[in-house]
Write a structure and sequence with these properties.
Blueprint: E1 25-28, E2 31-34, H1 40-46, H2 51-83, E3 94-96, E4 101-105, H3 114-118, E5 126-127, E6 134-154, H4 155-158, E7 163-171, E8 178-184, E9 189-193, E10 208-220, E11 228-229, E12 231-237, H5 272-284
InterPro entries: APC10/Doc1, APC_su10/DOC_dom, Galactose-bd-like_sf
Pfam families: ANAPC10
Family: Belongs to the APC10 family.
Length: 301
């Protein structure tokens, strides 16, 4: 066996019974050797029976130390990639619309309210403080077309505070809320997707069109009373990521456009005689600014 990079030092005068530190000396069947001073040929002459196996073990340990850091790093990185959340809004053409809504809860403990629920820090959470069912009501500033709803729960941390039965309702107001999804949970950890694919809204029937969404938490694990929700995200189609073609078809230059307003005549394509007739009509019926007195800035009432 050729020893190129591995060096085991010279023969010591000590015996096998001598008490030594493993970090300073290496023990073989033929004796104890100090680290750091003998050639490979001298070492091979002093090796006794049974030393080949020990020498191979030592070389294996050194090789493992050299490769250990890089190998562990690659494994941990791959595990993180596999264990991460595969949901990517940008890839799906979605954008978060939490900023368009007002969030309200039926009850909460001090320091565990809506602000903690909407925080990106998943160590924070909304904790209810009342009777079941616990309600989270989301009022939007305008009618929205929702494509995804996700909420975060963690049974490993919250146990009896973790929901087992969640119902979602939506409508234009509190008077017409209709259940559109039911989510059963068993020891959940991570982001949970609310099924809305067949809600019937949007051009393809897979959107939830509404003004209000309400989350009902009816039961918890281990018959727990209060609940923990560590985050909620609501997404709609992102027109910009879809090139601005998600809402309305592009109108061509020659396409008719009827928006209920008077059409403005143009002089394009008029011959000299028609243009003169149009000018004569303006002279006979001049436009007075008083005709526009009724046109004022819109007022919100």
């Amino acid at each position: 066996m050729a020893l190129t990079n591995f060096r085991l030092p010279s023969l010591a005068a000590a015996t096998e019974d001598h008490d030594i530190s493993d970090g300073e000396r290496v023990r073989f069947a033929g004796g104890v050797y100090d680290r750091g001073g003998v050639s490979d040929e001298e070492l091979m002459e002093d090796l006794g029976e049974g030393d080949d196996e020990l020498l191979g073990d030592a070389m294996t340990e050194d090789l493992a130390e050299e490769m250990g850091d890089d190998g562990d790093g690659e494994n941990s990185e791959s595990e993180d990639e596999m264990g991460g959340d595969p949901f990517n809004p940008a890839d799906l053409g979605l954008k978060e619309i939490n900023n368009l809504a007002h969030f309200g809860v039926s009850s909460h403990r001090p320091g565990n309210g809506v602000a903690e629920l909407l925080s990106d820090d998943l160590d924070k959470y909304w904790q209810s403080d009342g009777q079941q069912p616990h309600l989270l009501t989301i009022h939007f500033l305008r009618r929205v077309e929702i494509r995804a709803i996700r909420f975060y729960v963690d049974y490993n941390q919250d146990e009896s505070y973790t929901p087992t039965h969640v119902v979602f309702c939506a409508g234009t107001g509190h008077h017409d809320l209709i259940q559109f999804a039911e989510v059963p949970l068993t020891s959940p950890v991570g982001w949970q997707d609310v099924p809305i694919a067949d809600s019937g809204g949007g051009a393809d029937g897979h959107s939830l069109c509404c003004w209000i969404v309400q989350m009902h938490i009816k039961e918890n694990h281990q018959n727990g009373k209060d609940t923990h929700i560590r985050g909620i995200k609501i997404y709609a189609l992102d027109d910009h990521s879809l090139g601005g073609t998600a809402r309305e078809p592009t109108r061509g230059l020659g396409a008719p456009f009827d928006d209920g307003h008077a059409r403005v005549p143009t002089t394009q394509g008029l011959d000299g005689e028609s243009l003169q007739e149009l000018l004569d009509a303006f002279e006979r019926h001049p436009i007075s600014l008083s005709n526009f007195d009724s046109v004022r800035e819109p007022v919100i009432r």
